[in-house]
TrEMBL record:
UniProt cofactor(s): Zn(2+)
Pfam family, one: Lactamase_B
Organism field: Pelotomaculum thermopropionicum
SUPFAM superfamilies reported in the protein's UniProt record: Metallo-hydrolase/oxidoreductase (SSF56281)
Keywords: Hydrolase, Metal-binding, Zinc
Gene Ontology MF terms in the entry: hydrolase activity; metal ion binding
Keyword Metal-binding: yes
Family matches, as InterPro entries: MBL_Glyoxalase_II, Metallo-B-lactamas, RibonucZ/Hydroxyglut_hydro
Record has Ribonucleoprotein as a keyword: no
Highest taxon, organism lineage: Bacteria
The protein's name: Zn-dependent hydrolase
The Metallo-beta-lactamase domain, residue ranges: 9-66
Length: 67
């Protein structure tokens, strides 16, 4: 299992990238901002994101959702 914390946005909210090292299937948890930063890290890790998980609806946790 792979788990990385990625601080995003001006408040440096915690976004998490979770994935399986074997299958390369992953999830992004709380993509609050900085979609380019999140996507670049996902690319480096070689993951295919099948899930986006939102813990709640505040903008600092969902801001990059549409990207």
């Amino acid at each position: 299992m792979l788990l990385e914390r990625l601080p995003v946005g001006p408040m440096e909210s915690n976004c998490y990238i979770v994935g399986c090292k074997k299958t390369k299937i992953g999830a992004v948890v709380d993509p609050g901002a900085d979609a380019h930063k999140i996507l670049e890290r996902v690319k480096v890790l070689g993951l295919k994101i099948d899930y986006i998980i939102l813990t709640h609806g505040h903008v600092d946790h969902i801001g990059a959702l549409g990207k």
